Amino acid sequence: MKKKIIIVLLIAVVALVALAGCNRVKLDTEILVNGDFEIYDAENKTAEGWTINPGTTANWGANSADGSSGYDSNLGKRYFYLNSAGYNYISQTVRLEKNATYKIGAYINAANLTGTAGVYFPGAVDPVGAIVTEKTEGWQRIEQYFTSTVSGEVTLIVAVGKEGASASGTTDVRFDNISLQKVDGVADDTEVAILRMSEGYTMSDGGSTSFVVLFTLLSIGICVGMYFVLRGIIQNKVGLHPNDGVGKGDKFLNAMTSHTASFIYVLLAAFAVRFITVLASAEGNDIITNWATLAQDIASKGFISYYNNSANNPQGVIWVFGILGYIAKGLGMGDVGYAILLRMPMVIADLMVCYMIYSCASKYQNERTAITYGFIYAILPIFFIFGSLYGSVESIAIAFILAMALSMLGKKYVSTGIFYTLALMFSNYALLLLPVILLYQIYGLVTDKSSVVKTTVTMAVCFVAFYLLSLPLCWNGVVSGNVLMVFRKMYAFFDVSYPTLSDNTFNLYAIFAAGNRSRVDNVIFNIGNWLFIIGMSAYVIYHYIKTANRLDLVLLSAMMFIAYSALGAQSALEIMPFGLVLMLVYIIITPDVRLYIGTSLLGALSFLNIAQLLSRSGFIRGVDNAGWLDFESKNAFMIIFSILTVATVFYMLYVVCDITLNSYIKPIAKENAANETK
Known about the structure:
By secondary structure, this protein is α+β, with helices and mostly antiparallel strands. It is built from 22 helices and 15 strands. Among the domains are: 1-25 and 498-678, no CATH class; 40-183, Galactose-binding domain-like (Jelly Rolls, Sandwich). It has helices at 2-21, 209-234, 251-256, 259-280, 286-301, 315-331, 335-341, 344-364, 367-379, 381-388, 394-409, 413-424, 434-447, 452-470, 475-479, 485-497, 508-511, 523-547, 550-567, 576-589, 593-616, 636-662, and strands spanning 40-41, 46-47, 51-52, 59-62, 78-82, 88-96, 101-109, 117-120, 129-132, 140-148, 152-160, 173-183, 192-195, 502-503, 571-572. The strands form 4 sheets. It has a 6-stranded mixed β-sheet with strand order 4-5-12-7-10-13, with no helix packed on it. A 5-stranded antiparallel β-sheet has the order 3-6-11-8-9, with no helix packed on it. A two-stranded antiparallel ribbon has the order 1-2. It is elongated, with a radius of gyration of 29 Å. The two termini are 20 Å apart. Mean pLDDT is 82; it is low at 5-26, 199-206, 240-247 and 672-678.
């Protein structure tokens, strides 16, 4: 009965979140500020909302009824004009939604134009905007519909000429009543442009289908093959090292075929796969480019007050990549050198995870099992692609989260706090476990009197160290009174960096074509999302207080990441691997066949998600100037595989409820049933 109630409540909360996420921003609302130029500061010669490019002489004229400007009563009192040849413009930053359709329009009077003038987005693959390339007869209304493939802030300019193609003869090119509005759709015969902000890339350059398909099949094949190996090991029928005791007289042969040597081979294979992947993708991608920009920026400007700009990366990322930036600068590295060097921390972290998985399996199972699980992690595509190709810094955070989980299992409160703090320094997604970790530490204070002093001191030291390490990055803000700047940055990450319902992720929202759509910042939506997070945390806390089962705590922590990735709002690709690694630890200790199947499916789907994004964006084939090409909301690929992902997650939720409520384990091999972990 309890199980049914919890499942019903969970489904109800998920439904509430889904319904809340269906809200949309109002259509036909003007996005531009002061597009008619009526708010004008005559003294400073500026117009509200617009930034004048250095070197550009901007002018605002009066639209008088005497006919001197080709008066049109619909245009208002003022207009903007440029009367210099070359490339001159004013700009305004606007926020667009992924896969939303917009109408852009402007009145333009280009009676003396030779070249190009208009209102457009610089850096777009194809020209998008209200653009003229020849002289006009007085005022003309120019409009265009377009669909955006980007989300977030982009620059819109009002310009004469364009970069690399200056205009001439531009005496008095005029602009007025510029408009940018989101629309719900267009007529069937209307031409709709596509706004892509990665120069030189087109959809025809798309990625490698064979890479995506073959490695997805490889993921499934590895999981299926290792399942039968594990069954054989558990049943003592087969093993990776079946000839124990043979060749006793040959010390060298024994050493080279020992379990320790076997794991070293696994570790070397893990390194080789990752390093080859790094070299094969030496040109990097947008994520690597961002890390390189961060490293170069710090190498030029230093760490002091780095957070005073728009950066909201976790401080550990800034410290590590900043130091690497100094190293790269000292060695005179180019772009390729940066792309390789900046992925080495992810590769090293990945190898540490592989070692911890092996050590965990050696402790709770046997050497053969440990080698098998180490091998699974070493070559499973989702894990080596995640850090080595995709370049996610969450690989480092995952290593610390895993170390934290193993410390929890060992009832080591001090190291648990330290490793969790380190994880927070490399990923804001680790905040999802904050209530759980606080509960674990507080519970330890209450129940284990011998650890009171050490645990209290550790919690205090971790907080102080976290804050002190942020001080150089926030220095100007702190001295000006913003003493909590680092924590405001953490909040801004969720509030600004990922304003979408789900960011290119197989997710509940993607099923309803709401993925990659801007979230709505309203009360209902926020309550729904927080209820989901609070509901998960509450169940984990309740269960741990009731049972004090640390192994279940690891299981439920894994499920929090998995559930939020597939069912939560503002979900991102980087969240699922956290849950997969923690779930693998639980399976090692308690080999439940249902969890193994579910984790294997999610591992394959998560790889497919990342690989297809990289492929369609041109990174697999090394397309010149490739940039993220986000999935469309109404995309069959996203909808179908989101359904599979969500269905798998609901199955996993059922299994986890069955384990935590009924203590039922369905072992990988029947012979292992007598040793089940309850």
